[in-house]
Amino acid sequence: MYYETVFIVNPDVSQENTEVLTNELVEKIEKAGARIVKREYWGVRPLAYSIQKRNRGHYALLVTDGASDVSKMIDESLRLDERILRFLTTTITELSDEPSPLLRRRTTTVATEEAKPAGEAGEAGEAGEAGEAKAVEATEAVEAKAEETPEAEVKAEVKAEEKPAEESGATAA
Fold first, then answer.
1. 28's torsion region: left (phi>0), alpha (psi -120 to 50) or beta?
2. Paired residues of 1 in beta bridges
3. φ/ψ of residue 169, rounded to 5
4. How far, CA to CA in Å, does 16 sit from each of 82, 104, 140, 173?
5. What is the torsional sign of CA 153, 158, 159, 161?
6. Which superfamily does 2-115 belong to?
7. Which residues contact 50 (CB under 8 A, 6 or more apart)?
8. Which value, to the nearest 10 degrees, does the dihedral of the CA atoms of residues 83, 88, 89, 90 take?
9. 25 near 80, Cβ under 8 Å?
10. Would you report the helix, strand and coil content of the chain in percent, each value rounded to 5?
11. How many CB atoms lie within 10 A of CB 72?
12. In b/e form, how buried is each residue of 40-56, taking b as 16+ CB within 10 angstroms?
């Protein structure tokens, strides 16, 4: 029977130490008489909700083939390790040779970025710089208008105050 275990490692642990943790778990599984069918590292990903005041975590997937005792041993090992934020072990009946959907999405994203010709990347960079320059100009224009507006209002108020004073002075004289 196949068991799929997904676990989340504390983000304060480095990627290298996450790999060491996974290797230790794999050794325990192999000593127990099971075999690792699939092993994936999904990287640091945001959590759906905060766990132990953490918002991100290292995600890893292990698919094992063995007895139910091995599944219990995996759960016990993960439960006792303080570096593990959460884990979930499920039973699967069919084994897929394809990478998991998360890993497929990561590899297609990386492949798409690498497939861009150097000219397109340069043009995109220049377009980004031009867009930033336009944004800076627009911000400066808004700030200049904001600076002008209070002065214009003050001048209008001063003129409005002067007119009644002149009119009252004309009537008093």
1. alpha
2. none
3. -65, -35
4. 17, 22, 46, 92
5. positive
6. Ribosomal protein S6/Translation elongation factor EF1B (3.30.70.60)
7. none
8. -170
9. no
10. 60, 25, 15
11. 13
12. bbbeeeebeeeeeeeeb
Structure tokens, 123: 């043009």
pLDDT in tens, 138-155: 445 444 444 444 444 445
Angle subtended at Cα 35 by Cα 63 and Cα 43, rounded to the nearest 5 degrees: 35
Verdict on whether the full-model pTM lies above 0.85: no
Rounded distance, CA 24 to CA 36, Å? 13
> Residue type for 30, please?
E
Residues listed for the chain? 173
Give the pair of three-digit tokens for residue 86: 């959460």
Dump pLDDT digits (tens) for 81-106.
999 999 999 999 888 777 777 777 77
The structural domains of the chain, with segments of one domain joined by +, span: 2-115, 117-162
Joined together, the tokens standing for residue 106 give 């990561």
pLDDT tens per residue, range 40-70: 999 999 999 999 999 999 999 999 998 889 9
DSSP string, 147-159: HHHHHHHHHHHHH
